[in-house]
Design a protein that fits this description.
- By secondary structure, the chain is of the alpha+beta class.
- It has 2 domains: about 200 residues, Porin (Beta Barrel), CATH 2.40.160; about 140 residues, 60s Ribosomal Protein L30, Chain: A (2-Layer Sandwich), CATH 3.30.1330.
- About 30% of the residues lie in helices and about 35% in strands.
- It is built from 7 helices and 12 strands.
- An 8-stranded antiparallel beta barrel has the order 1-2-3-4-5-6-7-8.
- A hairpin with a 2-residue loop joins β6 and β7.
- α1 packs antiparallel against α3.
- The longest helix has about 55 residues.
- About 5% of the residues have low confidence.
Length: about 400
């Protein structure tokens, strides 16, 4: 069991080392482009098909080459189309979004090296403001500082093709959709909305740069795990799974063994009572005759606790019984057969069974029994339903 736990610790350490991949995880992403607000707009108000101007700035962290998160701030300015009623509004959009590297998920590196694809989705809190809602054009009366700005929530999602320019920079294009919730104003801010809920949507299209941060050679966007590393990691994960199951089995078996200890103690109490009764009822019968009956019934067993090579309390009692018998029968010779249960490594248990037999032999020699009369043999693992009865040394008379 100790060896299994040590192996598990080693494999866990190796697994963590493999997961600490050699790539950068942080980047700064900046873009600018155009927008197109959809519904809702005041009747007669509209923007051009590609309305300037959109800008975005975000910090992105990739947990691994496939998944990450980004915190960003987007800004959109909505202006009237030519020959349409004049307006200019400003949409400020702090947001948090999940990022998925579709390029790695789809294995794009196999057919288009240096090109990848990200997707993102999330949401945030928005402020919609304009000159119309402000007392003056002074910036302190706009946006975050204007109590009249329309405060709303929004969700967003988009797709981002990438082209790798260098290890530290990539060019990207982005097409995103945003959808506003719980707003009070149309995008031109000239009219109030008559209902709450999903009250508007819009599109943005932009180009930008990914600036990669960190001391590694590659960023997670472009990191491709080597096949041999992946195979090694798969093998380690299989070993970890197997060892976890083995440890769960060991725990179950240990619990079962504890439940059987009380039953074994009862059996030993019965054996002691039988010995005492025969000594009281038949005083003329020598104790060696009683022990001979135990030998015939195969009851001369010295028991051990789990993963221990020295006898437990009941086992020490039996060692003393065998020593006294051999002193009363100086011609008797015995074989000490050591056993271990099936828990743990086979080679370890084979060695444990031999050490158990050797320890009992040494205890008998220390009690005054000649070593030539004692043979110690490790029998290894023995399968049985009652494991704590298996952890024993069987004492048998040599014929």
């Amino acid at each position: 069991m100790r060896k299994n736990i040590l192996t598990l610790v080693v494999l866990l350490t190796m697994g963590l080392a493999l997961q600490a991949q050699d790539y950068n995880k942080w980047s700064i992403d900046a873009d600018f482009g155009v927008n197109k607000p959809g519904v809702h707009m005041t009747k007669g108000y509209t923007t051009g098909a590609a309305n300037l101007f959109h800008a975005g700035l975000s910090v992105r962290h990739m947990f691994n080459p496939k998944f990450g998160i980004r915190l960003g701030f987007d800004y959109d300015n909505f202006r009237n189309a030519k020959d349409k009623p004049e307006f200019s509004s400003f949409f400020y959009r702090p947001n948090a979004q999940f990022v998925i590297n579709l390029g790695r998920l789809l294995g794009m590196e196999d057919f288009c090296k240096g090109i990848s694809l990200l997707s993102h989705f999330g949401g945030g809190f928005g402020l919609l403001d304009s000159d119309y809602l402000s007392d003056s054009r002074d910036l302190t009366s706009l946006g975050l500082f204007n109590k009249g700005a329309d405060k709303l929530l929004y969700g967003t999602m988009g797709i981002t093709p990438q082209v790798k320019l260098a290890e530290r920079v990539a060019l990207f294009a982005d097409v995103s959709m945003f959808m506003t919730v719980m707003g009070n104003r149309t995008f031109d801010t000239k009219s109030k909305l008559e209902h709450k809920g999903v009250d508007g949507y819009g599109l943005t299209a932009s180009i930008g740069l990914n600036i990669y941060l960190g001391g590694k050679d590659k960023h997670a966007d472009w990191y491709i795990q080597k096949l041999e590393d992946k195979e090694e990691q798969d093998v380690l994960m299989q070993e970890l799974t197997k060892l976890k199951k083995d440890l769960a089995t060991l725990k179950t078996n240990a619990d079962d063994a504890q439940n059987n200890i009380a039953d074994n103690e009862k059996e030993l109490d019965k054996l002691r009572a039988e010995l005492a009764k025969k000594a009281d009822d038949k005083p003329a019968v020598a104790s060696s005759d009683v022990v001979n009956e135990f030998f015939k019934k195969g009851l001369v067993n010295i028991y051990f606790d789990f993963d221990i090579a020295k006898p437990n309390e009941s086992g020490l009692w039996m060692v003393n019984l065998v020593a006294n018998y051999m002193k009363e029968n100086p011609l008797a010779k015995v074989t000490l057969s050591g056993y271990a249960d099936k828990l743990g490594n086979v080679n370890y248990n084979n060695n444990l069974s031999q050490r158990r037999a050797d320890n009992v032999r040494k205890m008998l020699i220390d009690a005054g029994i000649d070593a030539s009369r004692l043979t110690a043999v490790g029998k290894g693992v023995q399968s049985d339903n009652s494991r704590d009865l298996i952890r024993r040394v069987v004492v048998s008379l040599n014929k």
